[in-house]
C-alpha cells in the first residue's frame, strides 16, 4: 500500500484501497495539507520529544513524523481498519511506537503516562461531534497529562479562550479552570478531506498545577452551571435556578456582588467568591 502524502489525491486513493468511506458519525476528516502538518509539528517544539498520546491518527499524517521524534508514541484509533493499517506500517513498528485500536473516551491515559514515566503530551485532531466529551476527559485526566495540542472547530477554541465572559461557555470555564489556553494557528477547512463545514484551529491546553478556584469543585461548577444556563438573565435570577432566594441573597452579600448584573460578566475570582459563599450558606442550612 502507498503512504499518504498527505495530499488529497493520495488520501483518497488510500481510503479507496482500504474500503473506507469517511464516517460522519466518527467525524472522520483527514489532513491533506503538508504545510498544516509541518505547522503542527513546529508548534509542538520540544514537546514533540516527549511521551505522546495521539488521538485519531487516521492515515498517519502526523503519526509518521511524530514517531521519528517522540521518545514514545501511543496512537489511539477507534476505526478498526485504520488501526490495522497503521499497525502494518514498518515505520510504526518497534518498542517506541504502539498503535492501539480503542475509543479515546475509554482509553486509560493514566496507564499510558505510567508507561512513559512522565505526564503525557496529547496531540490530535478532535471530531467535532465529540469535542466536549474529549475535552472533559482530558481535563479529568490532568494528573496524567502535561499539555495537549488539539485541532478543533475554531469557534469551540475561541469560546473556550473567551471563558469566563460574554462569549464564553460553561465548558470553557471548566477547561480554563484547570489549564492555560492559547490559540496557535488557524486552519482552513480546505486542509481536510472530506472538507468540513467549519474552519478549525490548532490550540494548546497546558495543565495548571492548581485550579483557578479555591471552593469545593462540585460547588464551584454548580454556580457556573446556574449562571451559564441562564446567561441572558441577571445574576440573581440565574443563581435562583439552583439555590433558594434566601441563599442567593446571602451569597451576593458575602461575595460583594450586585444581583442585577449579568453573571457572564464575572471572572474566576467572583465566581469563586460566590461558590465559597454558597458553601457557607449550605452549612447554615440555607442552601442544599
Could you explain the architecture of this structure?
With about 290 residues, the protein is of the alpha/beta class. The chain has 2 domains: about 10-205, Rossmann fold; about 215-285, rRNA adenine dimethylase, C-terminal domain (Helicase, Ruva Protein, domain 3, Orthogonal Bundle), CATH 1.10.8.100. The chain is built from 12 helices and 9 strands. The protein has helices at about 10-20, 35-45, 65-70, 80-85, 110-115, 130-140, 155-160, 170-180, 215-230, 235-240, 245-255, 270-285, and strands at about 30, 50-55, 70-75, 95-100, 120-125, 145-155, 180-185, 190-195, 200-205. It has a 7-stranded mixed β-sheet with strand order 4-3-2-5-6-9-7, sandwiched between helices. It has a two-stranded antiparallel ribbon with strand order 1-8. Helix 6 runs parallel beside helix 8 (about 170-180). The longest helix has 16 residues, at about 270-285.
**Would you identify the CATH H-level superfamily of the largest domain?**
Vaccinia Virus protein VP39
Estimated structural class: alpha/beta
Q: How would you describe the shape?
A: elongated
Text of the CATH class of the largest domain: Alpha Beta
Amino acid at each position: 500500500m502507498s503512504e499518504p502524502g498527505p495530499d488529497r489525491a493520495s488520501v483518497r486513493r488510500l481510503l479507496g484501497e482500504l474500503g473506507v468511506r469517511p464516517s460522519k458519525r466518527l467525524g472522520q476528516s483527514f489532513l491533506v495539507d503538508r504545510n498544516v502538518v509541518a505547522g503542527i509539528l513546529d508548534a509542538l517544539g520540544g514537546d514533540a520529544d516527549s511521551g505522546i498520546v495521539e488521538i485519531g491518527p487516521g492515515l498517519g499524517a502526523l503519526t509518521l513524523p511524530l514517531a521519528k521524534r517522540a521518545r514514545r508514541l501511543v496512537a489511539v484509533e477507534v476505526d478498526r481498519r485504520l488501526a490495522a493499517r497503521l499497525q502494518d506500517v514498518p515505520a510504526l513498528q518497534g518498542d517506541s511506537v504502539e498503535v492501539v485500536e480503542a475509543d479515546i473516551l475509554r482509553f486509560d491515559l493514566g496507564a499510558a503516562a505510567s508507561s512513559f514515566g512522565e505526564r503525557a503530551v496529547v496531540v490530535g485532531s478532535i471530531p467535532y461531534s465529540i469535542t466536549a466529551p474529549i475535552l472533559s476527559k482530558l481535563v479529568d485526566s490532568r494528573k496524567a497529562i502535561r499539555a495537549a495540542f488539539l485541532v478543533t472547530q475554531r469557534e469551540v477554541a475561541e469560546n473556550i479562550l473567551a471563558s469566563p465572559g460574554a462569549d464564553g461557555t460553561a465548558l470553557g470555564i471548566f477547561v480554563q479552570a484547570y489549564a492555560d489556553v492559547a490559540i496557535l494557528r488557524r486552519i482552513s477547512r480546505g486542509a481536510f478531506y472530506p472538507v468540513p463545514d467549519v474552519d478549525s484551529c490548532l490550540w494548546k491546553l497546558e495543565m495548571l498545577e492548581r485550579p483557578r478556584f479555591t471552593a469545593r469543585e462540585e460547588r464551584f461548577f454548580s454556580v457556573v452551571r446556574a449562571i451559564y444556563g441562564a446567561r441572558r438573565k441577571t445574576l440573581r435570577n440565574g443563581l435562583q435556578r439552583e439555590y433558594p432566594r434566601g441563599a442567593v441573597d446571602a451569597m451576593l452579600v458575602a461575595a460583594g456582588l450586585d444581583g442585577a448584573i449579568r453573571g457572564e460578566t464575572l471572572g474566576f475570582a467572583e465566581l469563586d467568591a460566590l461558590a465559597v459563599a454558597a458553601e457557607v450558606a449550605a452549612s447554615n442550612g440555607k442552601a442544599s
